[in-house]
Protein 1
Amino acid sequence: MNSNLKRQLEEDDLVYSQETAQPKYQDYQVYDDTKEKVKELIFFAKLAFFCVVTVLTAFVLLSAKLSPVFAFPLAMLISFGATNLVGHWVRKRQN
């Protein structure tokens, strides 16, 4: 057993160990996350637009003396439709 511990590495063993060794570091690759940032910005813009249109529509419906039970769901449906229409219009203008 002692003889194996003191054994000198041969030249072939050194060449083989150097060829199979993996690099200890990796080159830094810049990650371009601008598309994700734009998608997040569009999502929050759509959410803000939906909220503003919902509040304004609910105000108009409640001012028209519509029952709140009907005014709020109707305002949300109108806002959802308006948000989708604006989204389709923007996509159509881009192409």
Note: The two ends are 76 Å apart (CA to CA).
Protein 2
Amino acid sequence: MSINKRREFLKLSALAAGGFLLPSASTQAANWLSGAGATTHKFGLQLWSLRDDLPKDPKGVLKQVAAFGYNQIESFEGKQGMFWSMTNKEFKSYIGDLGMQIVSSHCDFRKDFERKATEAAEIGMKYLIAPYLGPQKSIDDFKKAADEFNKCGEICKKNGLKFAYHNHDYSFKKIDGEVPIDVMLKNTDSNTVFFELDIYWAVTAGVNPADYFTKHKNRFTLCHVKDRMKNAVATDQNSSCVLGEGVIDYAPILKVAKANGMQYFIVEQERYDTATPLESAKKDAAYMKQLKF
């Protein structure tokens, strides 16, 4: 085993020892199927989970999402825009009739952001989110991005919204001796720029999500909830799976998150091996309904 692989293995082992990774998926599945700890909290779906189906029939797919039990929607900006060939108000009205609300959307924050903030504000959205920066050449590149985020944060504030950044695993990998997400947290305005912690990507990077929730209270106000496959090697990035079938023990993680300012719990599904996207979304909703935190 190489030194880097061993380090990642030890990080994941520490997560397991801390109680945030299940010793086996069967324990989690048993609790889920037994209905232990049922709760009535709200939870949402990142529509990227249905990226192949949604463009073909936005209204029909959204109707199925509502039937699965999702209360909230986090959209993304595809070819049909954040509102899927509907106006912002048409979209709000349609999903409202289905019992859902759009709370946030991923978008291109470098293009026509003022208009997007205005449209989001008109329908009561809470956040616009930068979904991806990608690995950068230097830590200064992340500092420059933080400056851009501060400007977006001011635009959002002016419109009654908040701005947030969604991480991937690269956000936790040191560059020039510093951790990018730490630099982003330090160099952004805590009153206008927030963070959406993708818990899967944090765990994949060998990070304990609870450490960030407690150290940076009220900065992580949204999160992505998705599981990591059992027996996935530490270096395997593409190992997400249906909630309840993997190794991440979400109840203790989300309890800590909620106690430290987390407001929105958004399911995201990226990989489909055992079910179609819609089947996966349905299974994920069933898991979230039974999760107590």
Note: The chain has one domain: 3-290.
Protein 3
Amino acid sequence: MTDYDVLRVFCAPNGGYGNEIGVVRDGSRVPGTEERRELAAKLGFGETVFVDDPERGVLDVHTPAGRPPLAGDACVGTAWLLDVPELVVPAGTVGVRLDGEFTWIEARPEWAPPHTLRHCADAAEVDALPVPAPGEEPGGAPGEGQVEAPGKRPGLYAWAWEDEPAGRVRARAFPGPAGTGEDEATGTAALLLTASLGRALNITQGTGSQLLTAPQPGGWVEVGGRVRLER
């Protein structure tokens, strides 16, 4: 079996929650796209990262849905692991900074896979949303405050203010038929929500993951979180 690290990304303050990802530090050991797809499926993580150049931070990320141009968990986790100033992904060059217990990436909203953003009335409404059955489209028809992604909806990002003046948000994500029933932490959706609202956010997603965001000059957005090495 190819050596790989397991990281938990967007953890709560106690180190729990977040998403597990796999990182193959020496991507040359799995050189082909089909071999990488097979290994990613075997490992079973939401995102499996193959590092093709650790000094430049060149990444190839595989998810159950394919190879995204930008993957939030993968970028935040691998940036922490490699300790590099930037990452190179299919969408472009992602800025990186480490700030105490948080690792931050800076990317453009248009690089993120599309999500449908649904503004719910309150956190209780977010919590009450049912998890879609396998193969079922999440969320149904657009509701008030819902921003439709272009083309076929790959999933739903439902959110509500917990404390609007403080920028505190409650959110849940449902990737839909192409992915799992519910995603515990979704960095790219947080990036899109931040761009839509135009303000810094402190997001609690899923059962307890924490994602921090902040808009930056020139249309860029930062997304940050805690990373923990599982093994």
Note: The domain at 110-225 is CATH 3.10.310.10 (Diaminopimelate Epimerase; Chain A, domain 1).
